[in-house]
Structures are given as C-alpha cells and as structure tokens.
Design brief:
With 254 residues, the chain is mainly alpha-helical. Helix content is 54%, strand content 9%. Strand 1 and strand 2 (188-195) form a beta hairpin. The structure holds manganese (II) ion (MN).
C-alpha cells in the first residue's frame, strides 16, 4: 500500500512534470506566436518590405564583381532603400498593403509630390536591386540565352554581340546615376536607360516608349563598381556579362 502510494506519487509527480512541460511548451508557442504576430504587424505597419537574401555568397561573383562591393551594395544601399520605402508606406494608409509592382506602376496615384518622389526613388531602388541580384550568378553558371531569347535578340539586334554593344552604349551614356535595360515591349526587344532608380514599369514617369517588361538591367551607379573599377565604367560593364544569369533572363521572356 505504501509502495503503491509512493508509485502513485511518482506517477503523479511525473504527470505534473508532463503537464508543466506541456504548459511551458504551449506557453512558449503562445509567446512565440504573439512575438511573430507582433513582428508581422510591425513590418506591415512599417511598410512590410524586407531585404531579400542573395542566392549566392557575397564573393561568388569574384573577380567580376567583388565581395566588398556586393556586401555594401546589398547590405547597406539596398537596405537603405527598403527602410526609406517602409517609412514612406507607413505614413500613408493609401499605400499600405500594396505590392512593390502596384506601387511603382501607379506612382501618379500618390498625390503628395514629396511622398511620390520618395516611393519612386526608394521603391524603385528596392525593385531594381532585387531584380539585379536575381539577374546575376557565378560565372561558372552564367550559361547562354535560351533558343527563344537568342532568336528575339537576333531579330532585334542582329546578334548577341550587337545587343551587348547597344546595352553597353546605353549604360555608358547614362549621365550620372541610373540603369540600362533590355526590355520586351509589344513582343520585341529594346534597349533603354533610366535615371536614378526609375524602372521600366513606371508608367507616367518613364517615357511611354521606354515602358516595357525588363529582362535584364545593369546598375551604373558608382556604388555598383567604384571600389573595384573606379572611373572605368566600361570595364565594369564588360565584366558584368560574365556573371549574367542567362537562365533567369531567358525565363523572363514572354
Ligand atoms: Mn545600386
């Protein structure tokens, strides 16, 4: 009897331990859930945009794009655009909950000129850089244009080399900071260039003739190349082709 009581006591104690452990676990989940919800709410309150991870290490594009440039470009410049975008979105109920594409495709819906400029510059900065990182890959994986993309390039420019020349010419002639683009417009390919962080889907901001679906873009802000190439933008542009992810570019066609 005494033994059974003792056993019952042990079982009881074990049972209480289980209960306590489960309670602690459930409590931790509840607390975790609250934390996650609070973080999500805070992110949405702040605009909700976050810095995307790179699909490759910072040094994966060496020697063409150096790791130090990648680290600062992604971790500082891109992050700053996102932080500023989130602050802007948080300041206006009209902007909350929209995708970046929706914001950039309808900038003139933002009536406050200062707010519009902030979303244009920083939303553009976020979209452009996300697109840029996704357009790059280590040189060993660069590959080549798909048959369909090669045919479209040949049709518009005569050859891949001619397209690269036109693209580089647009990038070289962009005065100050901006981007050069290969876009698809009305089923045909074209080369364009935008100032600052303007992007090819910014209707009403970018000239109509230059609105299109971006297939490839190159950042020609000095922060994209100055540490390694200094004033030699042409050298950076020549090196850029080594790390273009032709599979990603090809998949954007159509
Ligand atoms: Mn940049």
């Amino acid at each position: 009897m005494k033994k059974r009581v003792a056993l019952a006591g042990k079982v009881g104690k074990f049972g209480r331990m289980l209960l306590r452990r489960d309670f602690i676990k459930a409590g931790a989940l509840a607390v975790g859930g609250v934390l996650v919800s609070a973080q999500t709410a805070k992110a949405q309150e702040g605009g909700g945009f976050t810095l995307p991870d790179l699909a490759y290490p910072l040094d994966a594009l060496e020697p063409h794009i150096d790791a130090t440039t990648m680290g600062i470009h992604h971790g500082k410049h891109h992050l700053a655009y996102i932080t500023n975008l989130n602050t802007a979105v948080a300041s206006s109920a009209d902007l909350k909950g929209k995708t970046i594409e929706a914001l950039l495709g309808d900038l003139h819906a933002i009536k406050d000129a200062k707010l519009m400029a902030t979303v244009r510059n920083n939303g553009g900065g976020h979209w452009n850089h996300t697109f840029f990182w996704e357009s790059l890959t280590p040189a060993t994986k660069s590959g080549k244009p798909s048959d369909d993309l090669a045919a479209a390039i040949n049709s518009a420019f005569g050859s891949l080399e001619k397209m690269k020349e036109a693209f580089a010419a647009a990038a070289m002639s962009r005065f100050g900071s901006g981007w050069a683009w290969l876009i698809e417009k009305d089923g045909k390919l074209a080369i364009t260039s935008t100032p600052n962080q303007d992007a090819p889907m910014m209707k009403g901001v970018v000239p109509d003739a230059e609105i299109g679906k971006p297939l490839l873009g190159v950042d020609v802000w000095e922060h994209a190349y100055y540490l390694k190439y200094q004033n030699k933008r042409a050298d950076y542009l020549a090196a850029f082709w080594n790390v273009v992810d032709w599979s990603a570019v090809s998949n954007r066609l159509g």
